[in-house]
């Protein structure tokens, strides 16, 4: 009962945080210091990531049994579960450094390739695990879709900033890129927690197989 209440409260907080990220992030220069603006923005993203985890562990489906499978491939899903949220957080921090004038756009765009490839691999490997349950696979599909969309929105945000095309749709896409960054982080955290629960470390005596074809 308490858990269900917390679950719905968390959902409301997640929606409010997303709204704040899409419409209310401080503009560069609005608070007088890039570091303060960046700290405020990063706090909201971290809050979204932490709330996503609370939402997951208080969800009714989390209390059910979930199929376990052997994490026998390379790279291991358990290792990717630790690295993927951290790589996403680094990507967000580089975005904030650019937005608040403390770095150029190159680090954010360059790291985007590494982060996106890692997230897409993580999601695809989970989807292709035959032992993975439907809830786990659904989260992986969401992560892969959100990551693909985020890269497209990022290109639009860049066009908005650099080419200053000025259309309302491109401004909308740039705002959506800010909010979708939190969704990607939240899904990476959720999928990581799910994988750490369901993927059992492979025994060292058994040969490793590719994650993509692990039967
Ligand atoms: C997984 C991929 C990506 C993630 C998670 C991501 C995330 C973010 C986040 C969270 C911000 C805002 C940071 C803040 O203000 O605190 C941001 C800003 C930005 N990103 Fe990305 N990004 C990704 C990929 C890309 C790509 C591929 C591009 C361009 C080719 C791009 C271009 C931009 C630009 C131009 C901004 C500044 C937007 C503005 O000031 O309104 N991003 N990104």
Describe the fold and architecture:
There is one protein chain. By secondary structure, the chain is an all-alpha fold. It has one domain (2-213). Helix content is 71%, strand content 3%. It has helices at residues 2-23, 34-57, 77-99, 106-127, 134-163, 168-198; strands at 69-71, 199-201. A two-stranded parallel ribbon has the order 1-2. Helix 1 runs antiparallel to helix 6 and helix 3 runs antiparallel to helix 6. The protein starts with a helix and ends in a 14-residue tail after the last strand. The structure holds protoporphyrin IX containing FE. Residues 25, 41, 88, 91-92, 95-96, 98-99, 105, 108-109, 112, 115-116, 147, 150-151, 154-155, 157-158, 161, 174, 177-178, 181, 184 line the site of protoporphyrin IX containing FE. Protoporphyrin IX containing FE is lined by residues 25, 41, 88, 91-92, 95-96, 98-99, 105, 108-109, 112, 115-116, 147, 150-151, 154-155, 157-158, 161, 174, 177-178, 181, 184.
List keywords for this structure.
mainly alpha; two-stranded parallel sheet; 6 helices; 71% helix; globular; binds protoporphyrin IX containing FE
Helix amount, in percent?
over 70%
Which regions have little confidence, pLDDT < 50, spanning 5+ residues?
Answer: none
Distance between the termini: 39 Å
Integer tally of domains: 1
How big is the Rg? 18 Å
Q: Order of strands side by side in the largest beta sheet?
A: 1-2
Report the average pLDDT across residues.
91
Order of helices and strands: HHEHHHHE
Bound molecules: protoporphyrin IX containing FE
Sheet with most strands: 2 strands, parallel
Main structural class? mainly alpha
- Beta strand %: under 5%
Number of strands: 2
Q: Please count the helical segments.
A: 6
Shape: globular
């Amino acid at each position: 009962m308490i858990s269900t209440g917390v679950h719905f409260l968390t959902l409301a907080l997640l929606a409010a945080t997303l709204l704040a990220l899409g419409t209310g992030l401080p503009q560069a220069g609005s608070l007088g210091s890039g570091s303060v603006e960046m700290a405020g923005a990063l706090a909201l993203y971290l809050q979204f990531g932490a709330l996503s985890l609370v939402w997951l562990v208080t969800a009714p489906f989390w209390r059910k049994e979930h199929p376990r499978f052997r994490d026998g491939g390379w790279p291991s899903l358990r290792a990717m579960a630790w690295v993927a949220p951290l790589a996403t957080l680094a990507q967000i921090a580089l975005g904030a450094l650019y937005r608040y004038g403390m770095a150029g756009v190159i680090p954010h765009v360059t790291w985007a390739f590494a982060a996106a490839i890692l997230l897409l691999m993580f999601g695809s490997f989970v989807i292709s695990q035959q032992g993975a349950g439907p809830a786990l696979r659904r989260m992986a599909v969401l992560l892969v879709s959100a990551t693909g969309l985020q890269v497209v929105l990022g290109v639009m945000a860049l066009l908005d900033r650099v080419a200053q095309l000025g259309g309302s749709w491109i401004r909308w896409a740039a705002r959506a890129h800010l909010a979708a960054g939190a969704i990607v982080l939240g899904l990476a955290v959720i999928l990581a927690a799910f994988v750490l629960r369901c993927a059992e470390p492979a025994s060292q005596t058994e040969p490793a197989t590719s994650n993509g074809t692990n039967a």
